[in-house]
From TrEMBL:
GO molecular function ontology, one term from the record: ligase activity
Ligase keyword on record: yes
AMP-dependent synthetase/ligase domain residues: 35-424
Organism of origin: Agrococcus versicolor
CDD domains the UniProt entry points to: FC-FACS_FadD_like (cd05936)
Keywords, comma-separated and alphabetical: Ligase
Domain AMP-binding enzyme C-terminal: 475-550
Protein name: Long-chain-fatty-acid--CoA ligase
PROSITE patterns: AMP_BINDING
Transmembrane segments: none
Amino acid sequence: MSAFADRPWLSSYAPGVPADIPEVDETLVEMLDGAVRRHRKAVALEFFGETTTYAELGEAIERVAGGLRRLGVDRGDRVAIVLPNCPQHVIAFYAVLRLGAIVVEHNPLYTERELRHQFEDHGAAVAIVWDKVVPTVLDLPSDLGVARVVSVDLTRAMPLRTRIALRLPIAKARSSRAALTTGVLASGAVDWSDVADARPIRRSHAGPEVDDVAVLQYTSGTTGRPKGAILTHRNLRANAAQGEAWVPGLERGREVVYAVLPMFHAYGLTLCATFAMSMGARLVLFPRFDPALVLQAMRSAPATFLPAVPPIYERLAAAAAERRVSLGSIRFAISGAMSLPVATVETWERATGGLLIEGYGMTETSPVAIGNPLGPSRRPGAVGVPFPSTELRVVDPDEPTVDRGPGEEGELLLRGPQVFQGYWNRPEETRETLLDDGWLRTGDLVRVDADGFVTIVDRRKELIITGGFNVAPSEVEEALVAHPDVAEAAVVGLPSRSGGETVAAAVVLAPGAELDVEAIREHGRSRLAAYKVPRRIVAVDDLPRSLIGKVLRREVREALLASDGESQGA
């Protein structure tokens, strides 16, 4: 039996937080329908000042569902969404679910090579795509079966005055417009307006069931190349409910949530697209994080709840101080995806007067499983305690049936209604990660004290977390060795001052080659999203290996850290 079976952390919960959430009995579609009924006249979405009420959101979802149905989307089909944060993203997300189909989220900054791998895996026939990325998707091999590409111009969701300003014949306007849209419909694509103006789906059209798959969220998981985590309506609705329970001071229909986290990431998807909607909140959408845009929005619709990552809190607090903009409306902030420095907490709470806590999770937990209590029992430096209805175990990493006790280091196992159903088309990796009795092997090494507070010690897996995103070393290595000057490569994560990691590479050069860091980086950018490209590249004579020839990334990391220390000492 687990040493933590009696859930000692319950005594540390903030007042009003329940030990368990009610069993989930509604889909995300039913959740959104309920929010529309309760908050019809309230603002659901805001984008550069343009607002959409819950009633208007509900109607838009029904129309887009009808348009997608006309394109052939049916129950169980996968529909790819390749969009930054915008109203069309939220509408498309719920319209796909309304049909009983499956959303597949994609980073719109991915290269053709990265997108191709994912499309090969999930086989979506319809893709809803930012117009700037449409040519990349249209160029995917025809045998992938992408029959229809719906092109989305983000600027059409902006206020008329903003759209007019973007068309002014001045350099700044042209630059801003070019960053947001191509302004043309690519040949072979379907215009979003044709889908959005369709006849609404019939109310009699059967929707999804609570245990149907809702989302395939690609992640590097605990090892290897990105794979699709299978998340059901129950998983995602449960995690939204757990989030609601964790913050008992939230007021339904009155909160203002800022979506600075991308919704193609599991963290942004749950905290913004599902949690915020379940609360009847006003969701203010930003296509990318820009402190100036956020502070501008704070003047007209001040945020009350801000999910983000440590660098965002640091940059926003500094920008607000410089421009003398108050952040005092933000009562609650939850940080995730990377470790949260205590100094960041102190700076943020001085700036806002609110609370900033750290949470822990992974795509496979929809994604949040652990959080610091929103109250005096929180412990900076620890990631917190399990959410309601969530259990944990600490086990021997080499023998997960052997439990470890309080204060002993071991691998973290989690179980709860938010734990995923496995990896799409990956039965073997599913068996390795998801044990028969529902326990998820996280791959993270932790210590849990007698009160149930979890402290991350190390990652047994070798993923790199940079800017809140997972990077699989093997994927970056594969891209680097495709350069003619690189014979071998080992990619690791080095500590960053922001609390995350920086991607670094040790490379063995081909005979006669000289190290050209910028040329290798440029090659990497042609194959990888920018955040995956190594910031540091070092040439070495050889890579450390085990007796069976496996590259020992841990030793590479230690060598790079040691060389950093030597250069600083010099």
